[in-house]
Amino acid sequence: VRLVQVTSRSSAGRPLAEAYPGLDTDLVLRDGTDPGDAEVVFAALPHGLAGELAAGWRAEGRTVIDLGADYRLKDADEYARWYGMKHPAPTLLREAVFGLPELYREQLLGAKLVACPGCYSTAAILALYPGLRSGLLDSDVIVSAASGISGAGRSLGLGTHFSEVNEDYRAYSVTGHRHVAEMRQELSIDGSVPRLTFVPHLAPMVRGILASCYAGLHSGASLESLIAAYRDFYAGAPFVRVVDEPPRTKAVAGTNECHVHISAQDGKVIILAALDNLLKGASGQAVQAFNIVSGWDEATGLDAAPRWP
Amino acid sequence: VRLVQVTSRSSAGRPLAEAYPGLDTDLVLRDGTDPGDAEVVFAALPHGLAGELAAGWRAEGRTVIDLGADYRLKDADEYARWYGMKHPAPTLLREAVFGLPELYREQLLGAKLVACPGCYSTAAILALYPGLRSGLLDSDVIVSAASGISGAGRSLGLGTHFSEVNEDYRAYSVTGHRHVAEMRQELSIDGSVPRLTFVPHLAPMVRGILASCYAGLHSGASLESLIAAYRDFYAGAPFVRVVDEPPRTKAVAGTNECHVHISAQDGKVIILAALDNLLKGASGQAVQAFNIVSGWDEATGLDAAPRWP
Amino acid sequence: VRLVQVTSRSSAGRPLAEAYPGLDTDLVLRDGTDPGDAEVVFAALPHGLAGELAAGWRAEGRTVIDLGADYRLKDADEYARWYGMKHPAPTLLREAVFGLPELYREQLLGAKLVACPGCYSTAAILALYPGLRSGLLDSDVIVSAASGISGAGRSLGLGTHFSEVNEDYRAYSVTGHRHVAEMRQELSIDGSVPRLTFVPHLAPMVRGILASCYAGLHSGASLESLIAAYRDFYAGAPFVRVVDEPPRTKAVAGTNECHVHISAQDGKVIILAALDNLLKGASGQAVQAFNIVSGWDEATGLDAAPRWP
Amino acid sequence: VRLVQVTSRSSAGRPLAEAYPGLDTDLVLRDGTDPGDAEVVFAALPHGLAGELAAGWRAEGRTVIDLGADYRLKDADEYARWYGMKHPAPTLLREAVFGLPELYREQLLGAKLVACPGCYSTAAILALYPGLRSGLLDSDVIVSAASGISGAGRSLGLGTHFSEVNEDYRAYSVTGHRHVAEMRQELSIDGSVPRLTFVPHLAPMVRGILASCYAGLHSGASLESLIAAYRDFYAGAPFVRVVDEPPRTKAVAGTNECHVHISAQDGKVIILAALDNLLKGASGQAVQAFNIVSGWDEATGLDAAPRWP
């Protein structure tokens, strides 16, 4: 792999090593969105923009790994409902593969347009899919998730100001967060859409998401059979571990791993999934998908130390 | 009020101002549990111990404000089930008043034995009681709560070691936390025990609890009527505010307040309650109860700056 | 005291209780800098602006408590050197009293224009003045200080973004920080300007400054006599405590106190001063000065719990 | 390299992956200090113990990389003075090589006993050695350093309790920290011992040390020549970078790098050195030394992501 260039709207012209301290590189951030002679484009853009640009990149024969939301939802009407705009290239939606390797490993091989899932969606889907797929879980589900502040990106606002968020814990988007649409789409089993309530929270830390999911166990089903279903489902997944103790975000920080734990309390099932929102929840998963697209070992390049933040 | 003495098992003999930096006092921590000539004893002891001692203190005519768990559960069998020991003084259970002023203000006036609720219980009960009491909420309830590390007390262990818990977020006691017994007892309406699933989490901060509660809305009920029921219930409560934005633990840190917020997502109700686990969740609420017991304004002495931690 | 109004440039029109969560007030933030019928104006403005406005306010007979830098330096040339602009009202510099009560308590009584010192300056001057004044310390001094992030104010930038500053510690302004001019002015004894090197650092916490000061002990002087000089100097100061253990910022957070500790290592003296940069380093000290100006007990109103952040 | 075994006194019998969450290994921690058939022993033991055991290990022909203090000081009397005990094997002191590769790369090749420096010492020596060696710096030096809490190890106490140290910043060991002996030894140039005052501080973060060093510039010397001396000295050092902006601990966290910055304020020189106390300040440097001892590239194995904490 040869890194052709890196672009940035807010830091164009600055050395990459200055914008992201600690990196040892001479690359300078370029303005604009022209990928030069790159065969593969990783796009991390505001919604709407990648949707437009991807059509052109595809027409030029490039492969697109989109970290944004534009190609995640298969239904253009759902997109319009959640993002408040007409989808810029609805005909491409069919071509796009949802970039969650644990569900779409086969479809990703050779794919030309990959729509990487959101950070919360990755955690919630990995937590719930095997249980719903196996038919052992009820489809009335609560996802109560917490994320570190880096989930808000590098944008500036009081919501990311250290003095405002340190020693604070709070819920947000309580009446509906956009990621719920992806979760419902991917957790629909044979056309049956689950009833899914999702409330995200902010915890005073940099990296990490823990999705705490609550659902009923089907009558007749046992916790043991449910855990077995998860172990089966993730048997061949190098980055998902079904763990015996409740997972900790710190144990997955800086890695592309997702740790999943299943337990029950008086018949209510609790499924916990922990991951690093910047890796398995974003760039790490994009690289994992890119590896599969390219026919390589999906773990290639994913064991190095992350540098910032 | 005259402070007669302060005792401590771990710091006996040390000046109080050394054990709790910042306090400007000459008091020295005494060993043992002899209250001297105090008329009122505030007890913060491991379970079992306060249960034993309180019987003697009551026999001596003292008033007891117990911050521990021994007198919270009315049913001695439930106590035995959750605390793994026979209750040391079951006959006193009838006399004890549950120290949550918003529910038991009248019973507290002149009470001789007060059982202050646990920190999580205070948040969950304040979040759910008005909704269940009003009959507008379903009684299948999820309480997904997060607490700062001070909830673990001053005891030492890797679980409170800075390097182990900073930049970490995790669930614990997933198969059942003792506070769920108090919650179920207090949230039983006319003998009907709710189905309540409670999972506590640890957030990397010192103070604060946010209880995120999820329940169904009874068919025919509206969110507006539910919010009105909360506003009515807390109309005379100086420390509980029904707020318009999702509450933040930082806004109540250092105070005896509890902020409650009610919203809904596709028919599922989300009730959030934020408080400072060391104040409204512990010592602050104990002082509030003591004020009511004594016939004083319940806010007396509760506006000063807390000192540690 | 009656609070007439609060103005804000960035949050004009918003309720104060929304801009600063937790406050229980109906006040709405006004735009502009018109103080209405206020007899006393507390100004916290960018440098230059308060300098201009204060002249008008003084002409209208109002008392001005300025938390900014415009009236701290007695020498208009020094002001021009450090702030890059001509002083807007040099004739008022003589009237201004430096608002550090421990040095200027008598001059503050009835003062009409008070120039409150910077947060770092307060810590460094309280740490060094008694030692230099007593003639026991050498005048070649290092001030290596660390501040919490709230010292940067509420302005937005990567420098206050949680993800950028949490788990980070760094020095800044290494070639010269503006507060050094105030320190040199106030630490000049009988016209002799000390050689003072000042390097500020940022620690990943909200509140608190610790100034670690290093100086030589004059030959013949003893550490004991030095400590005695500090105890004498601060004997009547209600907010400064000479403490026996190295002070901790957490012990003074939320208070108007400054804790000072004096020790030595092989003849080099180390003086540590800890304070809350938002209270003794800013608004708390302004209220303290205002109390003295008004002829009241200087501690009036300074024992309440701070609310944000 | 084959990892033969890992021993632990406090966690003997537990799986390594449980004691250090996130590691994916089946190794179980063994009790005792028997190195089995290991040719190389990495020792991280309380002072005194490694000193005793190392003699036996050396007699058995093993190579010893000691991360503790027992073989750092060349003078057994200095050892007795700082550690309060007779040195257990003074005759081995001559054989021991001080494990700071940037100063002793040649001596480390093939060494049998390596005494890795302390974390603060590594930062202070890397910051000051080139300046003192070049003769451009005065030898009256202040080292004011701050460390993250992991510097205290995994031992339990209020000093590492999250609630006690979060939002706190403080100095400790103000009258003399043991690392000052190593610093003085290594910074003595041609037998001339510098006057060195060292005060460590604790910052509320997990990893990182910043040593802020203050010294006079020799008359006639220029800042430019001083910076050039540092660039020359570290030209061949893969892990030390002389940087243009004040370094940040976060930029070196998780790496074996040390970033050094040199500036001046009115003739006083400020040298800042940042490193990760658990890597370049401890285990990373031990691996770096081991690589050199073994004749390999000194960066071998040092680019992987660290896992805990």
Topology:
The structure is a homotetramer of 309-residue chains.
Chain A: H1 16-19, E1 40-43, H2 49-59, E2 63-66, H3 76-83, E3 97-98, H4 101-108, E4 113-115, H5 119-133, E5 140-147, H6 162-165, E6 170-171, H7 179-187, E7 195-202, E8 209-216, H8 223-233, E9 240-242, H9 249-252, E10 258-265, E11 268-275, H10 283-293
Parallel strand pairs in A: 1-2, 2-4, 3-4, 5-7, 9-10
Antiparallel strand pairs in A: 5-8, 6-7, 8-11, 10-11
Question: Would you give an account of this structure?
Answer:
- Four copies of one chain form a homotetramer.
- With 309 residues, chain A is α/β, with parallel strands linked by helices.
- Helices cover 28% and strands 19% of the residues of chain A.
- Chain A is built from ten helices and eleven strands.
- The radius of gyration of chain A is 19 Å and the shape is globular.
- At the B-D interface, helix 6 of B face helix 6 of D.
What distinguishing features does this structure have?
homotetramer, 309 residues, alpha/beta, seven-stranded mixed β-sheet, four-stranded parallel β-sheet, 11 strands
Work out the oligomeric state of the chains in this entry: homotetramer
Q: Can you count the helices of chain A?
A: 10
Shape of chain A: globular
Strand order of the largest sheet of chain A: 6-7-5-8-11-10-9
In this structure, how is the largest beta sheet of chain A organized? 7 strands, mixed
- pLDDT averaged over residues of chain A: 95
Q: Largest chain interface and its two residue counts?
A: A-B, 44 and 44 residues
Helix and strand run of chain A: HEHEHEHEHEHEHEEHEHEEH
Helix content of chain A: 25-40%
Sheet/helix structural class of chain A: alpha/beta
- Runs of chain A in which pLDDT lies below 50 for 5 or more consecutive residues are none
Sheet-strand content of chain A, in percent, reads: 15-25%
Q: Strand tally of chain A, please?
A: 11
Termini gap of chain A = 24 Å
* Rg over alpha carbons of chain A: 19 Å
